[in-house]
Fold:
Amino acid sequence: MGRKNSPLGFVVALFDVLGFEFRLKKYGLDEIQSKYYKIVEIVNKNSEKNRILFEQLNITAPLMIADGPPMVFYDIRAIYSSDSILLWSNLAWKIVQDKSIETLRKNENHSAYGYLSKPVPLEPFLSMCAELICRSIEIDLPLRGAIAMGDAVLNETDKVFIGSPIVDAARLEKEQKCIGLSICTSYIKQQDHSKFFIPYSEHFKEDYRAERNDCALNWPLYWLNSRNTDLINAIEEMATRNDNHSYYLNTIEFIKYSQKYKY
Structure:
């Protein structure tokens, strides 16, 4: 890592729409585009909020509050193409994205600024991933994906998106047989990620034998904490409205398993 303006690399989540061809025929191009907008606008609204914090309020570091943990803000971006949605964020704090990796390492033990040499806390990014999955279920555009880290070129202006984390996520994403998100071996979990990931491997296809971290994002817990509707009923209704694919049954099995990890 150490590329200019991204000294610590990126965290990337690549999502694929399950049953895309079926839904394209069912809804038509205009309705599918509208559904994509409903997903991506969640990220765009978050970006607009952060732009105000960065540019108008000059908040570029964790915001300390009197009661509770610091509030963390950083930019999360998203694009969509065909049946895929790409979500990403710079792992370096905005204030040091123009610094070299060598400079960050020199200051990593500084009592006040040492945190700037470390990756941003990933809770906002993981929560955004969970929100996209939940929203995709509500609009009948179910997503499966994978999350990775690494060096990349993610240039919205020139529409250039290349790098190893995108390749890693694309490979793992297609090996799943249900709605949800898995982690690539390049992903580095932080200390307080226990509430986000649960041990699970039944969501992988039977012939998948590559080395992997057998964990999945506990997005059903996010649904439980953010929605007032029954998740299993939502999946069952989706299966009935569509082709009753086994992927829906596999998703329900994962949801039932995840209930062991309620907090």
In short: The chain has a mean pLDDT of 84.
